[in-house]
Amino acid sequence: MEQINAYKTPEADLEADLEFEKPQYLASQGKRFGTLILDNIFIFVYAIAIGFILGIIFALTDNVALLEVLAKPIPNFLFGLSVVFSYYFFLEILWGRTIGKIILGTKVVDVNGNRPKASAIFMRTLVRFIPLEAISFLPNNGASGWHDRFSNTQVISSR
Fold first, then answer.
1. In which region does residue 35 sit, left (phi positive, over 0), alpha (psi from -120 to 50) or beta (all else)?
2. Checking phi first, is residue 98 left (phi over 0); if not, alpha (psi -120 to 50) or beta?
């Protein structure tokens, strides 16, 4: 009678190609354009909400001088830049996605498919302010924008 060792590792001739993670596919330009439109709508709503809150605070504190300063072109422009920057930067730092990306099922990852570092998100957000950056997607089909290339990030479909 053959003795069986209960502590021996079992042997099997299995050639299983186990893949636990869903493969990552780059988001289409159509999805990316859709997120741009949705994000611009949400940025507009976000700016109105911040302006409304600041208006109430300035009215309650009777601080008309600061309100007049913000009504001038350069401070108003800088306020707009800070609203857009904070929308993209903080949402992509927290969740790797903006509200538009959540709705359309995309997310930002680094070139290795991992969560990007804060420095990459910072660079990605800054590059968005380069004039005509949006046309950097046009050269060929599947092109990534400057904010992807300069920050070594990409946008993938998450569903």
1. alpha
2. beta
For residue 127, count CB atoms less than 10 angstroms from its CB and return exposed for 0-12, middle for 13-18, buried for 19 or more.
Answer: middle
Is the Cα torsion angle 125, 129, 130, 134 positive or negative in sign?
positive
CB 100 within 8 A of CB 42: yes
Per-residue pLDDT of the chain (159 residues; tens, 9 = 90+): 567 776 777 676 555 544 445 557 888 888 988 999 999 999 999 999 998 998 888 888 887 787 788 788 898 899 999 999 999 999 999 999 999 999 999 999 999 989 999 999 999 999 999 998 888 877 665 567 889 989 999 999 988
Rounded CA-CA distance 60/62 in Å is 5
List alpha helices for 13-28, DSSP H: none
What is the separation of C-alpha 32 from the centre of its chain, rounded to a whole number of angstroms?
11
pTM to 2 decimal places: 0.78
